Every structure is written in structure tokens, then in C-alpha cells.
């Protein structure tokens, strides 16, 4: 009888983080409240187009969350949001007037005029 071995292949992360986004996560974790284990990206229903991007501190892992380890901390992606975000790039952009995470999401079919929400 021949023994069968199973090879487990690492899968690519659902979301690609730019160096700027990774640095912002590190900055957030450096000032995070006690008990924080990472930051979590989710897509709650909100805005004029349907879904929005939300990044918040998280204190415990949820069973179906995607986990992306970065040098400065862990980014969790809400399990229910992963399908809307696969293949996206997350960036942190700052200029003289605004600062925030910016998403290049190939799954988005449209967005509202202010860029606050998107449809899939």
C-alpha cells in the first residue's frame, strides 16, 4: 500500500497592502488601545452605492476572518467581506487636506460620486 502525502500550498493574500498601508497599520498598532490584536477591514452596508470600507481595531479573532500578517501588525478581513475584496490593493494616502486608506478594488462595478461607497 502506497502512502499518500498532501502538500499544502500557501495561498496569496486576499488583499495586497502597499508599503504605505503597512506603515499605517504599524502606526495604528503603536497607538492602539490595550487588548488590541490587530485592525479589521470590513464592508458594511452604507452609503449611496451600497457597501463601504471600514477599518477598526479588533480585540479577538473571528472564526472565518482572513488574517494577513504585516511587519507592523495583523490585518484581519471580515469573513463576510472577503468575496467583495479579493484581488484588491489597499493603500494609505495623505496630502495637505486629507488622509485615508484608498482601495483599488477590481470587484467594484461602480461607486458613488464622493467615493465613500461602492457596488459589486
Output the strand order for the largest sheet.
4-2-6-5
| Outline | globular
The profile of the biggest β sheet is: 4 strands, mixed
Q: Determine the structural class based on helices, strands and strand pairing.
A: mainly beta
* Estimated radius of gyration: 16 Å
Organism: Sphingobium rhizovicinum
Protein name: HesB/IscA family protein
Domain Core: 17-116
Family: Belongs to the HesB/IscA family.
Structure overview:
The protein is mainly β and 120 residues long. The protein has helices spanning 19-30, 82-85, and strands at residues 15-17, 38-42, 51-52, 54-58, 66-70, 73-77, 88-94, 99-104, 110-111, 117-119. It has a four-stranded mixed β-sheet. It has a three-stranded mixed β-sheet with strand order 1-7-8. The model has no long low-confidence stretch (mean pLDDT 85). Belongs to the HesB/IscA family. This is HesB/IscA family protein. Residues 17-116 form the Core domain. InterPro entries: ATAP (IPR016092), ATAP_core_dom (IPR000361), Fe-S_cluster_asmbl/transfer (IPR050322), FeS_cluster_insertion_CS (IPR017870), HesB-like_dom_sf (IPR035903).
Amino acid at each position: 500500500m502506497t502512502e499518500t502525502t498532501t502538500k499544502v500550498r500557501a495561498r496569496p493574500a486576499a488583499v495586497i497592502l502597499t508599503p504605505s498601508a503597512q506603515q499605517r497599520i504599524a502606526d495604528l498598532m503603536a497607538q492602539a488601545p490595550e487588548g488590541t490584536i490587530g485592525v479589521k477591514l470590513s464592508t458594511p452596508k452604507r452609503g449611496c452605492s451600497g457597501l463601504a470600507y471600514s477599518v477598526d481595531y479588533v480585540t479577538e479573532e473571528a472564526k472565518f476572518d482572513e488574517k494577513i500578517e504585516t511587519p507592523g501588525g495583523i490585518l484581519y478581513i471580515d469573513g463576510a467581506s472577503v468575496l467583495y475584496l479579493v484581488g484588491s490593493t489597499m493603500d494609505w494616502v495623505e496630502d495637505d487636506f486629507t488622509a485615508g486608506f484608498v482601495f483599488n478594488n477590481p470587484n467594484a462595478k461602480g461607486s458613488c460620486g464622493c467615493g465613500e461607497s461602492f457596488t459589486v
